[in-house]
Design brief:
Largest sheet: 6 strands, antiparallel
Radius of gyration: 33 Å
Strand order of the largest sheet: 1-2-3-4-6-5
Number of helices: 26
């Protein structure tokens, strides 16, 4: 063995020798990867070290019983606890894992962290997370808790043992993502998602990963165990699996995205059998060097690691049931970028949730485009400058000095050359070159035109003149510029300028400008033309053509004599003016509310159908239960919600007081308070995928998109709700059509429909289960989690068509369940005031509220007062949609 080899062996051995034996052997595999010779040499030293300890009387001794559990053997040791395999005899016989704090580790901080793990596990109920059964204290006062015994093996070992292919490994990661997403919903971050903490068992013939050891978990939810913090001089977690924000002393700023990073590390390892920074030399340099690398260095892509020849490609491919070439093709491209997006050092560019990562992996498995993409050149340049700030500044200063001198010289040279060329009339005239560079001015014209175009919303008559000016000005000038740009680019192509020359730069920039101009004409100019057509005709199509219907609606709604037509509006009669873009349908015979048709969401631009020919529902189309059928051609149906005061929120203290709900969250849903609202329009249904398609040229974001089959259980149709919509995208789309998201107060007021019970259906969970699409047996069988109502069956594996279940007293379908619905408000406590008229809560916060629960939700999350929230700009889970609202003008 040479000196360098011996130093590597010693570095790893000294890193592991003080660890408990079980942990040392597990970490040995992680540190040495496929270097079997190195692994065997270090293992030999560790065995000798263990034997020497045993000879000195250091063999472990464990108790015969802990509480009412008979101890069988030691399963493993961690930094603060020992885990025993034990047997429980009553009230049922089973084997369990009992974790007890170590002797000598009972400091206040360790006891607090141990208690945090116990509380974290107790919060969770998911098939991919080991369950906690019991807790207590030993005779000498050390705390312990009893959890599900998972007789499995680490996920990496399981995959290699059974030679799982890429798809099989990704299926296991999807289950791990589901478990972690559940933990994050409960406000818990794991912070140590290594393979030894993800064990795979086989249940009814199916592999099921189980997440264990929340010993490093940290609560993130208000009211959770947030008093357990990391000391500023302490680093927790396994070094090579840490996120950049965790790889710093104290790691005070760790959130759920840290677990997403570690999932990326795990995914990397499962794909190529190695860690992003799995170098023994790096480890031998010490923990600080490992932390620096994680924070500052970019790991190679998985396919690059495989193709670089540093790994045994044949063995890796064989362990994945394929050959090296096929494995490389499988990794290269989309899967590379999914992994690298999860491993982003800037966590704002990372997948924001485990569910987002899971959704992109599903897209890959379903051969769909993934959201992850290579970082832009600008982003890579910015990272380079940030890492090498001093060198870059020095280089720029030198370059500026050189350029200043060069510029003077070049100016004289150009002047002399110009005189010579003009005099001799040879070569390309300077005027010609200047003219070519003048073409680049269209780059600025294009950016200005784009900014002006973005202001031409919504498409209403008041903006028609601005649209005409834009089309005659900016659009016409850029359309005319396209031939000039194309001709100049062709001339430069023919000249074949040398790389690095001004003409070569000009040629490249003109090629990009040409592409941008073509897209501008085909997309933006065409869009403005369609908007102008709508703005010029909408008054005739909705107000003038339906003048009689508007007069009838106005008379009926304004009447205050208590007749059936005006019963819902009798307390606050409305002097209804015709609403541009809406057409009266009539009074719903069941709810007593007037309903209106949104014509634009039923019209497909560019399809050659005149909006005047779009069929509008009538009173005769109502079913006996007040339903109006919705199909792929149906536009948004708005109910005119009467104004009034209501009690918002919920409380669990007084059964006789308003809005009693025994499940009320005192921090989020109290105090119950009075809010007064003016009348407004609210859509009866969640926005459908067909309506999304007609209202925007942007792609359908839905994970469960129209035409997709859900594992043979059901077919998604265009009448299903659009989902996976961010708040920002929803707000932008609705705003472009004169619509809004409902405020939280308006949402709760309309969903309650005059009731004060937890659900509009009553006080019992069973009542809402019969009327809503919530997490049921079918969804659970498809991997959707665990619910207290797991035996319930509503007939839908995922979301349902928007109109299939009964409506509430105001005519709203799926007021509870189906998909979460964004609200306009930022998230804030009920101690903050609301704006008069629409109830918007006056809060400044980056998160936005969502309400109503979804097909992934337990019944408690669908309560009328339950408040959920998410970030406005980031991507969202696949169960978040939107219900449109509109002001009464």
């Amino acid at each position: 063995m040479n000196v360098e080899r011996w130093e590597r062996v010693q570095a790893v051995f000294h890193r592991l020798r003080e660890l408990p034996a079980v942990e040392a052997r597990t970490l040995l595999v992680e540190l040495c990867g496929d270097e079997l010779a190195l692994r065997n040499e270090v293992a030999s030293l560790l065995r000798a070290h263990e034997a020497a300890g045993a000879e000195q009387g250091q063999a472990p001794v464990f108790p015969t019983a802990i509480g009412r559990y008979r101890v069988l053997e030691v399963l493993g040791e961690g930094g603060m606890g020992v885990v025993y395999l034990a047997e429980q005899s009553e009230p049922l016989r089973r084997r369990v894992a009992v974790k007890v704090i170590k002797l000598g580790m009972d400091t206040a901080q360790v006891l607090a962290r141990f208690g945090a793990e116990r509380q974290a596990l107790a919060l969770m109920d998911h098939p991919n997370i080991a369950r906690v059964y019991d807790a207590g204290s030993t005779d000498d006062g050390r705390p312990y808790f009893v959890m599900e015994h998972v007789p499995g093996e680490p996920i990496t070992t399981y995959c290699d043992t059974y030679k799982l292919g890429v798809a099989g490994r990704l299926e296991l990661v999807l289950q791990v993502c589901a478990g972690i997403q559940h933990a994050h919903h409960k406000g818990v971050v794991h912070r140590d998602l290594t393979p030894r903490n993800i064990l795979v068992t086989v249940h009814e013939g199916q592999a099921r990963p189980k997440i264990i050891d929340f010993g490093l978990a940290r609560a993130t939810a208000p009211g959770g165990h947030h008093s357990v913090y990391t000391r500023r001089d302490e680093v927790l977690g396994t070094p090579l699996y840490m996120s950049p924000e965790q790889a710093g002393l104290g790691a005070q700023d760790v959130d759920t995205r840290s677990d997403v990073y570690t999932l990326g590390v795990l995914l990397y390892e499962l794909l190529v059998g190695d860690l992003p920074f799995a170098h023994c030399e790096l480890l031998s340099a010490g923990l600080l060097e490992v932390q620096r690398a994680i924070r500052e260095l970019d790991p190679p892509r998985p396919s690059s690691r495989l193709s670089a020849g540093l790994l045994d490609a044949a063995s890796l491919a064989a362990a994945r049931g394929t050959d090296p070439a096929t494995l490389l093709r499988r990794l290269r491209g989309d899967l590379d970028w999914v992994v690298m997006k999860a491993l982003e050092k800037d966590r704002t560019r990372r997948y924001q949730t485990a569910a987002e990562l899971s959704a992109d992996l599903l897209r890959f498995l379903d051969h769909e485009p993934v959201l992850a993409s290579p970082p832009s050149s600008v982003y890579r340049l910015r990272k380079f400058v940030r890492r090498h700030r001093t060198q870059v500044v020095a280089t720029v200063l030198v370059a500026v000095a050189l350029l200043a001198g060069t510029f003077t010289s070049v100016a004289f040279a150009v002047s002399a050359a110009r005189s010579a060329k003009l005099a001799e009339n040879r070569g390309l005239q300077l005027a010609e070159r200047q003219q070519r560079f003048d073409v680049l001015a269209h780059v600025i014209h294009l950016e200005v035109a784009k900014q002006d175009e973005a202001a031409l919303y919504p498409a209403e008559p008041e903006r028609a003149e601005a649209m005409r000016r834009w089309l005659a000005g900016d659009a016409a000038r850029l359309r005319a510029a396209l031939p000039e740009v194309r001709r100049t680019r062709h001339e430069l192509d023919a000249a074949a300028p040398a790389e690095g020359s001004p003409d070569h730069f000009l040629r490249q920039r003109l090629a990009r400008l040409e592409r941008d101009l073509v897209a501008f004409v085909n997309d933006r100019v065409a869009s403005v033309q369609r908007r102008l057509d709508w703005a010029e005709g909408v008054r005739a199509w909705t107000v003038i053509r339906h003048r009689a219907a508007w007069a009838g609606a106005r008379d009926a709604i304004a009447a205050a004599d208590g007749t059936q037509a005006s019963a819902r509006y009798a307390r606050a009669p409305i002097d209804l003016e015709p609403q541009l873009g809406l057409v009266p349908i009539g009074m719903n015979p069941v709810t007593g509310l007037w309903e209106f048709y949104h014509l634009r969401s039923a019209w497909t631009p560019g399809a050659g159908i005149d909006p005047v020919r779009i069929p509008v529902p009538t009173v005769s189309d109502y079913e006996a239960d007040g339903r109006l059928d919705v199909d792929e051609h149906t536009g948004i149906i708005f109910a005119l919600i009467p104004g009034g005061a209501f009690m918002m929120g919920a409380q669990s203290a007084d059964r006789g007081a308003p809005n009693y709900d025994r499940a009320a969250d005192a921090l989020k849903e109290e105090p119950v308070h009075r809010v007064t609202l003016r009348p407004f329009f609210l859509a009866r249904h969640e926005l459908t995928q067909a309506q999304w398609r007609r209202l925007t040229t942007e792609p359908n974001p839905s994970r469960y998109f129209a035409g997709r089959e859900i594992r043979g259980v059901e077919q998604i149709g265009w009448d299903h709700p659009v989902e996976s919509v961010s708040w920002a995208d929803a707000d932008r789309l609705l705003g472009r059509h004169g619509l809004t998201l409902p405020t939280e107060a308006r949402w709760e007021y309309a969903v309650r429909g005059g009731t004060t019970t937890p659900w509009w259906t009553g006080i019992r969970p069973r009542s809402v289960l019969l009327q809503s699409n919530l997490l049921d047996r079918t969804a659970i069988e498809l991997g959707g989690g665990v619910a207290s109502h797991a035996q319930h069956e509503d007939g839908f594996a995922v979301h349902a068509p928007v109109d299939v279940l009964p409506c509430n007293p105001f005519g709203l379908h799926h007021a509870h369940g189906n998909v979460w619905e964004w609200c306009a408000d930022a998230y804030g406590g009920y101690d903050r005031p609301v704006r008069g008229g629409d109830g918007l809560r006056l809060v400044e916060d980056p998160t936005r509220l969502m309400r109503g629960g979804a097909f992934t939700s337990e019944v408690g999350w669908a309560r009328a007062a339950f408040r959920n929230h998410g970030e406005a700009e980031r991507g969202v889970d696949l169960d978040v949609g939107v219900r449109a609202a509109r002001e009464l003008r």
